[in-house]
Amino acid sequence: MEGKERLGILDQITAKDKVRQRIIDAASKLYVKKGFKATSIDEIAEEAGVTLPVAYQYIKNKSEIMRLIMEDMLNIFRENLVSQLKGIEDPEERLRIAISLYFRMLDQQQDKVLLMYQKSSSLDKPSKSKIMEMEVELSRIFGEIIEDGIKKGIFKDVDVDICSYNILILAHMWSLKRWHFRKRLNIDEYVEKQTKFIMDALKK
Q1: Whether the domain at 9-60 and the domain at 63-202 fall into the same CATH topology
Q2: What pLDDT sits at residue 96?
Q3: 184 vs 67, higher pLDDT
Q4: End-to-end CA distance of the chain
Q5: Whose CA is closest to 198, among 76, 91, 43, 88?
Q6: pLDDT: is 130 or 189 the higher one?
Q7: Is pLDDT at 11 greater than 80 in this prediction?
Q8: Tell me: the pLDDT tens digits for 57-110?
Q9: How confident is the model at residue 133 (pLDDT cuts 50, 70, 90)?
Q10: Quick check: 176 and 114 in contact, CB under 8 A?
Q11: Side-chain-side CA neighbours of residue 26 (13 Å)
Q12: Taking Cα atoms as reference points, which of 139, 141, 133, 132 lies closest to residue 78?
């Protein structure tokens, strides 16, 4: 197997974000190709173009990779959301932007989404707990926007936790059931229809 071009020793020591991202991308690729159990940390290091000792600084076991993948997706969403929402006060507009960003991010990262669903049961207890914590944190991003809309009289007085998780599940559904929806919808049409569905349920 040919891995990526190896990073120099100095880069492996100093470019921590770059090394971390390489490990995440390499593991995701190999898990999809070979499966979770059949992939070794040695292979992940080789594919990432880093030495095994460096790889072990980021992952002590394969369960930690799934945590890193979840963290990566959450960070991508957060960073994009912060930049897109600057200066926007209207809760409805903020929610529309957040929904669009999250749905499209999962479309771009669908291999990672499927991995999370397929392999979550095989993770160790600390990794499962960490992923659940991050999922709740993600739902709160939507929850805070909905709560603001309720306070401003734009949204109905709904169960915020349920509504927030509904948004997460509708986004995941595109990845999990894409084999069905892609027969008649592309991602733009899916986002448009689901956004209308969510807004119709929330708006007064």
Answers
A1: no
A2: 96
A3: 184
A4: 57
A5: 91
A6: 189
A7: no
A8: 877 777 777 778 777 877 788 888 888 888 899 999 999 999 999 999 889 888
A9: confident
A10: yes
A11: 27
A12: 141
| Chain-centroid distance, C-alpha 203 | 27
Does the structural domain 9-60 have CATH classification 1.10.155.10? no
Would you say the C-alpha torsion 26, 32, 36, 37 has a positive or negative sign?
Answer: negative
Is the pLDDT at 180 greater than 80, yes or no? yes
pLDDT band at 13 (very low <50, low <70, confident <90, very high): very low
How many CB atoms are closer than 10 A to CB 77? Answer: 19
Per-domain residue ranges of the chain: 9-60, 63-202
Residue 59's pLDDT is 78
Range 63-202: architecture per CATH: Orthogonal Bundle (1.10)
CA dihedral 92, 94, 96, 101 (to 10 degrees): -170
Please state, in angstroms and rounded to a whole number, the distance separating the CA atoms of residues 32 and 36. 8
d(CA 204, CA 201): 8
